[in-house]
Amino acid sequence: MTDFLPNARDARAALLPLVNGELDDERARRLLAVHAWSCLIEPGDAIAGRLVSTMGHEEALAAAVAGRSPTAALDAAGITSRTWQEALKRWLPRVNERAMRDALDVARRAGVSLLTPEDPQWPASLADLGDHAPLLLWVRGDLGRLSDPTPTVALVGARASTSYGEHVTMEIAAELVARGVAIVSGAAYGIDGAAHRAVLTAGGTTVAILAGGADRPYPSGHAHLIDGVAQSGAVVSEVPCGSAPTKWRFLQRNRLIAALADVTVVVEAGWRSGSLNTAGHAAALGRALGAVPGPVTSPASAGCHRLMREFDAQCVTSADDVVELLGGPTPTLFDMPPVQGPGERTDDVTRVTDAMSFRAPRETSDIARRAGLTPEEVTAILGLLTLDGSVIRAEGGWRRGRTGVPVP
Amino acid sequence: MTDFLPNARDARAALLPLVNGELDDERARRLLAVHAWSCLIEPGDAIAGRLVSTMGHEEALAAAVAGRSPTAALDAAGITSRTWQEALKRWLPRVNERAMRDALDVARRAGVSLLTPEDPQWPASLADLGDHAPLLLWVRGDLGRLSDPTPTVALVGARASTSYGEHVTMEIAAELVARGVAIVSGAAYGIDGAAHRAVLTAGGTTVAILAGGADRPYPSGHAHLIDGVAQSGAVVSEVPCGSAPTKWRFLQRNRLIAALADVTVVVEAGWRSGSLNTAGHAAALGRALGAVPGPVTSPASAGCHRLMREFDAQCVTSADDVVELLGGPTPTLFDMPPVQGPGERTDDVTRVTDAMSFRAPRETSDIARRAGLTPEEVTAILGLLTLDGSVIRAEGGWRRGRTGVPVP
Lengths: 408, 408
Description:
Two copies of one chain form a homodimer. By secondary structure, chain A is an alpha/beta fold. Chain A has three domains: 2-108, no CATH class; 129-326, Rossmann fold; 334-400, Arc Repressor Mutant, subunit A (Orthogonal Bundle). Chain A is 45% helix and 11% strand. Chain A has 17 helices and eleven strands. The first copy, chain A, has helices spanning 8-15, 25-40, 46-55, 57-66, 71-77, 81-91, 97-110, 163-178, 191-201, 223-232, 247-260, 275-284, 299-310, 319-326, 347-354, 364-371, 375-386; strands spanning 113-115, 137-141, 152-156, 182-185, 206-209, 234-237, 263-266, 288-291, 314-315, 391-394, 397-400. Chain A has a nine-stranded mixed beta sheet with strand order 1-2-6-5-4-3-7-8-9, with helices on both faces. The first copy, chain A, has a two-stranded antiparallel sheet with strand order 10-11. In chain A, helix 1 crosses helix 2. The longest helix of chain A is centred in the N-terminal third of the chain and has 16 residues, at 25-40. Chains A and B meet through helix 8, helix 11, helix 12, helix 13 and strand 9 of A and helix 8, helix 11, helix 12, helix 13 and strand 9 of B.
């Protein structure tokens, strides 16, 4: 089936403009097989994923195209005979050597590069997708962006965004850029576009994952924006160049956004927005998930509130909140066992307030020493006590506030 | 110290208009002692609370007024000698027999009733406040309201509310009334007032807890509204009639709001709003806590978002969400162990979709039977699958949606 470029010289000539590093005949054949697979399957096909990781791309491809059942490999991959036959029914109608050759040609002309897991620039985070990981990526722009260790946030949301949502997206995106965070999104109208645009304006790094071919800006109204993304960051797709975006490919594209980001933040989303799918992938991958609240009267925020309620998405109101998600969960007051409301002053609370002055601000460490508590305990209690003004953050530390009444 | 009405007949005459049920000399003396205590202390004084529950009101009062140290009782109550002396310094300057008599007189003229824990109408939920529970309540309106088992929600929020916040408050309040829920709030300007007003308009039951005397509408601009609350529900305070509201009394009043409600919902609150104090009490009491999100650009919603982030407040967007909090936590998708995003279809997900039809809607129980799963598991999976449209709720149950692409 890699017969679509049977001559080793032709194969190397077709691939050379698309790849980095050495390209011997063996690698060329392997890359052709990977490409062929990506032409046969839809993104996220776990049967193909399991088979190629069991047999290797070339052998698996040969078996599939010949309609053979590689029984030992199927058993090892846990693929039943029925599933295999179903898979063949999906794949074999797509065998089209001409289309496979053409896709490489389109990629070359569009300046799109081929990245596979054997490349050093392959993003390691995609391994979390398991059998559903992409077999390859087509990249327009800076290949190195995908594997560099910059903290990365997915900022995504509804196409049908409001000016509120776009405003918040741009604020958060610009602030994140200022803190050296890279932004991944889907280049769609609405929130995605606002995110990419704000990053480019702020001179940051942004990556767009497309549902169709990387050569094919979608939506076309964002062609200029997507060009800009390719110039400063990268435009990425797992489907062959020339492919159209489809509903399924959008849903699968979303898993790449979630997997490539450390944190996914949904800024606005309707009750059934596709962004919820991205959020679902992020949660399934164990990535931190945030959602920006909005008016409960705004349908464009209904999906965000749903994420908070049903998916335990963290409420994100600013870039600071996103940075907190990037740093992993920080303990909240209620993770501390015995701290209670100001009306129920526990001994520890009393010890903290006793260790503080109304006039002279004291550092947390100083308060901890005087109170005989750990600085972490003191920090949590101080956080609680700020709520009713009984302590106040001041230059040089913390001091007590005057509530005007004796503390019981 | 109950010498302020030394004659048993005078005492009964003063109390009779204020109480329900039989009033013999013994009860009269006890009630006078309770009232005297409430004149000596600030709300929530745990030292007084511990002492009276150890010694009884009358004996404790006699000891305090005489400046004696009832050593055995103090030991039993865990009150140190130093704490006791400090407490006496707070209490003794307030001994004023004339003021105590006058307070009863004001109560009588204002039609305010005295409620103590020995009355059947005493709200049992206040016991959760422990040593900080009020010693008595002054009630203007329907005494029975406080102890009836109607589900009760505290709707509270900033005085500096926005029209958005007031709108949402009124929507939620009216909807909750339609479902037979009673609303507690603090009668303040802004969110509190909108909540009471909406309940009165909807013909529901509402209770206002005041920081000053129950005879004394505060703020005065809400005098008419508070009269309305007293007529249809109850206006409640724990401080003697005629008392002015103070900062401390507002904070302690908040603990009563939180304790009297099954659920506390903060609709709008600034970053340091007093409503956060009510929320803190609710959380400390183990009551369910909700917060209504708003634009992250609105300072009036900043406290609500903070409650979600730091206090694990549930995101509340509608009366439905409040009712869910009233019913206790319902399992969310992520409480279910193995359900993942649509891209990662697990066997259970496949079994559910296999058990469904594209055309004929099926009941959850029917799907569960066909799939060999529990109805709870099916419900959780269906909830997840609605996100990307792979299942659709239809008349008579659920059916599969067409995503237009083969499911891997």
